[in-house]
Amino acid sequence: MRRSARARRARIQVTADGVEVVVPRGLALAEVEPFVASKRVWIERTLLRMRAAEAARPRPLLADGGTVPHLGETLELAVRVEPARRRSHVARRGDTLAVAVAEGGEEAVADALERWYRARARVEVAARLDAAVARVGRAYASLQIRGQRSRWASCSARSGMSFNWRLLLAPAEILDYVVEHEVAHLDVRDHSPRFWALLAQRCPAAREHEAWLRANGHTLRLR
Questions:
Q1: Residue 70 has pLDDT above 70, yes or no
Q2: DSSP character at residue 162
Q3: pLDDT of residue 60
């Protein structure tokens, strides 16, 4: 359970890390348990759906010979352990990612890969974002790459854009959709029917891609 000064009402978030209940600071603890109990069927159904999705999309094996997804492609890992190395290094060579780390183990490989994905995300997102705003005659103020737990992207009131690097673990059309989603927020800030109508004009498969993210987003993880 987490108390939030910004929360106006209690809400439940089911993620790959577990079930989190977010409640306003002034809500009495005695009210939390019945609230969670009232959502039990939905929580259990969501967890079952997530487990099924995880079984269909197992977490990558972060070791030599393992594979990782990248915008719909499958890249094979070639991992070398070099104890004298001060900093890990990742380089793509065709369909292979060469990973050099100072010590073995999945955590070291995951750290190295995450840095690589973050750097690639800035390149992939920037290209798509620049093209999307140019098509509609808009502009954005800044671009940040983050690793939020429960948010894929955001557009601030000052037109600052933020995207989750984990989107590179999804098919390319999902990243394309999220970019169009945030660019649409430059015109319509909320998720009103007007927003969805505008997004549907720019991305006809928007609802389909949104449903994919809801069903599979929790599987887009390296660890």
A1: yes
A2: E
A3: 86
